Amino acid sequence: MTEFTRSAFLSAAKHFVEKDLEVSMAGRVFMITGANSGIGRATAMAIAKRGGTVHMVCRNKDKAEEARADIVKESGNKEIYVHILDLSETRKVWEFAEAFKRKYKALNVLINNAGCIMSERDVNAEGLEKSFASNVMGVYILTRGLIPLLEKSAEPRVITVSSGGMLVQKLRTGNLQTEIGRYDGTMVYAQHKRQQVVMTEQWAKTHSNVHFSVMHPGWVDTPAVANAMPDFHQSMKDSMRTPEQGADTAVWLAISEAAATKPSGSFFQDRRMVSAHLPLAWTHSSQLEQQKFMSVMEDLAKTFHCQSDGNLM
């Protein structure tokens, strides 16, 4: 677990190839969820500084506009756009994806960064458990909805920000809404992060012309971690990574040529491909279990898909 600290990042960074990030992203289009703070904001800033067009997908309008102003000011890049969307509002995620495809001609990179940890079980308007709706169903629908646009764009990539917590979780194909048993928000979040890894691996098999990857940012000092896990944050804050250090691998996966040479569907930490399971772990699931999970997700997603003419926020 010491691999997830700030000192581990600094140690790994000694072996980074700096020219990997010395690239212009002018003309390439990026979408980043949860882009107004923490890892998402640091990722948006890094891409904006390299000339990329950035679509910030955020829940809070005031915080998003404030972050956008800071990014434009610091990067000198005005091609930064804010879209207001709560990923836990399942039907609205479909509507957003459909509207985005109608309005924009290209999307080169999607970065699924937004996530939430709930302290107690709650449901959204559609009756889905809120953290599942945001962390899993929202990511599934947004990615699935935007794949046709990604496939029409040059060198498309999808990066999902996971968490080391998933290393202690085996994929669940049942009780996805955590209706059975005690609700432990941190463990529920960790299961969602395992589910994101499985989705990435499966998408890589079915969409060979898009490069998929999933990454662990390490333990990062962000407002979300401080709010959701105050005791952990208090005890670990001196050894936690900065948002920029946490974002480094996501940025590398999004913009470097080196990342595109790695196998699609892989799991990364500190710019290295690593196993998505601990040694001798019991967390492996069968291909059948993974396909069952994807089938459940697809069936559930379809129930919320309405051919809306909703306007893009």
TrEMBL record:
Source species: Oncorhynchus kisutch
InterPro entries xrefs: NAD(P)-bd_dom_sf, SDR_fam, SDR_member_12
Entry protein name: Dehydrogenase/reductase 12-like a
Superkingdom, natural source: Eukaryota
Designated gene of the protein: LOC109882812
Alphabetical list of PANTHER family matching this protein: DEHYDROGENASE/REDUCTASE SDR FAMILY MEMBER 12, SHORT CHAIN DEHYDROGENASE_REDUCTASE
SUPFAM superfamilies: NAD(P)-binding Rossmann-fold domains
Pfam families: adh_short
